[in-house]
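Can't paste images in this forum, so I'm doing it all in text. The chain is below; anyone willing to post the predicted structure tokens underneath?
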Amino acid sequence: MSVFTQPIEWDQSLIQRYDLAGPRYTSYPTAPQFQETFSQASLFRAIVRSNLAQRPLSLYFHIPFCESLCYYCGCNKIVTNNKRRALPYIQRMIQELALYADMFTPNKQVQQLHWGGGTPTFISDDEMSLLMNASRRLFNFADDKTGEFSVEIHPGQVSINTMAHLRQLGFNRVSMGVQDFDARVQQAVNRYNTRAQIAALIQALHAQQYQSISMDLIYGLPLQNQHSLRETLQQVIDLEPDRLSLFNYAHMPHLFKSQRLIHAEDLPCPTEKLEMLHLAIDTLQQAGYVYIGMDHFAKPDDDLVKAQQQGKLQRNFQGYSTHGNCDLLALGVSSISMIDNVYVQNAKELNIYQQTMDKGLLPIAKGFTLNQEDLLRRFVINRLICYCELSFHELSRAFDINPQQHFRTELAQLQPMIEDGLLQIDNSGIKVLSKGRLLIRHICMVFDECLQQTDHAKTIRYSKII
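Text version of the structure:
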């Protein structure tokens, strides 16, 4: 039986012992390692290699505007009611996309598209058309059956007519932030959407022939408890989304100003949070959802499950994703691209981003070029976090190393986890067991060379892994 079809084995004492702070591994090396001294020539060479390899593209557009402030949010956002701010920004994103289009081969296919934010539906229908039509003009898009074209929405603020317009533009997937249905919790975080609103929206999305609907939930919010979360989960299950993301709320007001509006005394204690996570995982698995890993669930016939079964799953800046063969080109303020062996991050400040675009330059603020050792460790972490196993034979073939010799120190560090029943290691490789799946970030941290550097460990503050 696959570890992904088994119920999670919950060991409270082990979870509490291993529940340390650590990266979420949407990349390796992680974003704190990116350097301002990064040379754009490294990016240009990576694009050449991408063209030679004929890898398809995944496009991401960061639309940072929101009409209201959600107190828990840690995203790069701009809260405003001034709709006139959107068009100049979209025009500059199109300009940025055109600069990249000149570098990629004309037949480069876009297999994935994602609009995130912020709230992308902040922009008008005409602005949506402008951005999408420009994207199709500059790049070759896969068809509706094979391409995944998704948009994030606030279900309490979007109209059914807008969703119809997005479908006409080619979007076929929707990700909506539900977070929690409890009225007290919603008031505590200033995020409102009723079950009736979402039920009506989902009915319309099905009628508009969207292929997949995903919902985001958060556990650990203020005034949230097991009872309220159970009620939310049951309502969500009744709505039958194709995918679910269950995120841990990390209270880090020193990093995110909006979180200072949350009363710390209203937050559930760590033990209560763990109990809520246990409840959520059990409830969703009993409802038939497959636990992909970390924070993602999907119906058994969903493409995310199929990608995991077929070896095509990847972990990137949007979380778990299909089309692991794609390079990621990200546009807009603060967005991060992942092309061949480089990461590049755009300027985080809107004014700096727009001023750089006005000079006709790429708005890159930081970047990182992976060396062979980085690529090896990225491969290891991706395999573990996506498939809960690592084949030594595959590793040897791909990187021409003796894995057991190369990682002898790391394998020794895993020994206590073997004794605790989190994983198994033999001559064929590493297998994470059911008891270890919740602690996969901790397992991956053993292979994170950056974390072994004392200065790095002291200066970077991560959230708890659970």
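The chain is about 40% helix and 20% strand. The mean pLDDT is 94.
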